[in-house]
C-alpha cells in the first residue's frame, strides 16, 4: 500500500461504512472466544483492527509492509513491525488469532502468504480472512486499489485448505451493494475518486450493511467474502 492510499484510509476509516462494518464483523467474531489471547493483524495499515482487539482485551501485534503504516500504527499506540506477508518476521505457533483483512488480493504469491498465516498460528488457532469476490466485478477501482485478483468461494477455500487450514465458515458481505457495483464497475476510477464519500451516501451504505446482517443472505453472491478457518491441533 502506497503512502497516498494509507493516508486516505487513515482519514476515512473512523466513519467510512466499510471500515465500520469490518470492525463490527471482527467484534462479533471475537465473541466466539471464551477468553482473549494473542493476535496478529497482517496488512494492518494504521492498526485499526488491533485497536478493536485491544478493546476486547487481546494482546495484538500489527504487521505491514509499509514503514509509513508501521509508524502510523505506533502513533496510535499499537505494537507494530514492518514485514512482508510472504515472509513474516514472526515465530511459528505463536498466535491464537490471525487477521488477514483485505490483504491477500494485493499479494501476487497469495499461496505463500496463506502458508505464513498458518505457520504463525498455534495449533487450534483461528484465522479471519476477508477478500473482494468475483472477477466478474473486476474494474478500474480494483486497479486503483492495487489489487491483483478477486476471489470466488472455491478459490478462497482452496487457498486456505492448501495452506493446511480447516475451513469453519465462508460467507458473503455486500450482497445488497452488489447491483450498484456491477453498474459502476466499468467506469474509469482516478485517485481522487477514492476520497471520502458524501455523508448521505456513506450513511445509506452503512444502514444497508446493518440491515444485511439481519437477513439470511450470507450464501448469496456479494462484493466481499469472509472466511474463518483454524490450524489443526
Mean pLDDT over the residues: 91
Low-pLDDT residue intervals, each spanning 5 or more residues = none
Portion of residues in helices? Answer: 25-40%
Q: In angstroms, what separates the terminal alpha carbons?
A: 34 Å
* Strand segment tally: 7
Strand order of the largest sheet: 3-2-1-4-5-7-6
Tell me the major beta sheet: 7 strands, mixed
Key features of this structure:
7-stranded mixed β-sheet; alpha/beta
How would you sum up this structure, described in words?
The protein has 233 residues and is of the alpha/beta class. 38% of the residues lie in helices and 21% in strands. The protein is built from nine helices and seven strands; from the N terminus they run H-H-E-H-E-H-E-E-H-E-H-H-E-H-H-E. It has helices spanning 3-12, 17-30, 48-55, 67-75, 110-120, 140-144, 153-162, 178-184, 199-212; strands at 38-42, 59-64, 79-82, 95-101, 121-132, 166-173, 224-230. Strands 3-2-1-4-5-7-6 form a seven-stranded mixed β-sheet, with helices on both faces. Helix 2 packs parallel to helix 3 (48-55) and helix 2 packs parallel to helix 9 (199-212). The longest helix is centred in the first third of the chain and has 14 residues, at 17-30. It is globular. It starts with a helix and ends with a strand.
How would you summarize what this structure contains?
The protein has 233 residues and is α/β, with parallel strands linked by helices. 38% of the residues lie in helices and 21% in strands.
SSE layout and pairing:
Layout: H1 3-12, H2 17-30, E1 38-42, H3 48-55, E2 59-64, H4 67-75, E3 79-82, E4 95-101, H5 110-120, E5 121-132, H6 140-144, H7 153-162, E6 166-173, H8 178-184, H9 199-212, E7 224-230
Parallel strand pairs: 1-2, 1-4, 2-3, 4-5
Antiparallel strand pairs: 5-7, 6-7
Amino acid at each position: 500500500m502506497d503512502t497516498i492510499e494509507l493516508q486516505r484510509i487513515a482519514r476515512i476509516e473512523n466513519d467510512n461504512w466499510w471500515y465500520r462494518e469490518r470492525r463490527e464483523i471482527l467484534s462479533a467474531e471475537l465473541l466466539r472466544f471464551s477468553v482473549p489471547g494473542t493476535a496478529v493483524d497482517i496488512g494492518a495499515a494504521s492498526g485499526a483492527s488491533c485497536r478493536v482487539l485491544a478493546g476486547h482485551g487481546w494482546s495484538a501485534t500489527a504487521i505491514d509492509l509499509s514503514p509509513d503504516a508501521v509508524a502510523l500504527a505506533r502513533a496510535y499506540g499499537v505494537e507494530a513491525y514492518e514485514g512482508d506477508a510472504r515472509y513474516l518476521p514472526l515465530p511459528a505457533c505463536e498466535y491464537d488469532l490471525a487477521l488477514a483483512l483485505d490483504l491477500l488480493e494485493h499479494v501476487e504469491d497469495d499461496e505463500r502468504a496463506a502458508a505464513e498465516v498458518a505457520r504463525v498460528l498455534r495449533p487450534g488457532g483461528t484465522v479471519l480472512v476477508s477478500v473482494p469476490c468475483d472477477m466478474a466485478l473486476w474494474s478500474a477501482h480494483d486497479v486503483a486499489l492495487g489489487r491483483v485478483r478477486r476471489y470466488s468461494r472455491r478459490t478462497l477455500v482452496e487457498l486456505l485448505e492448501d495452506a493446511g487450514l480447516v475451513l469453519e465458515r465462508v460467507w458473503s458481505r455486500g450482497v445488497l451493494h452488489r447491483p450498484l457495483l456491477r453498474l459502476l464497475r466499468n467506469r474509469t476510477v482516478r485517485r481522487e475518486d477514492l476520497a471520502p464519500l458524501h455523508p448521505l451516501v456513506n450513511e445509506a451504505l452503512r444502514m444497508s450493511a446493518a440491515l444485511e446482517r439481519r437477513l439470511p443472505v450470507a450464501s448469496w453472491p456479494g462484493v466481499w467474502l469472509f472466511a474463518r478457518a483454524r490450524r489443526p491441533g
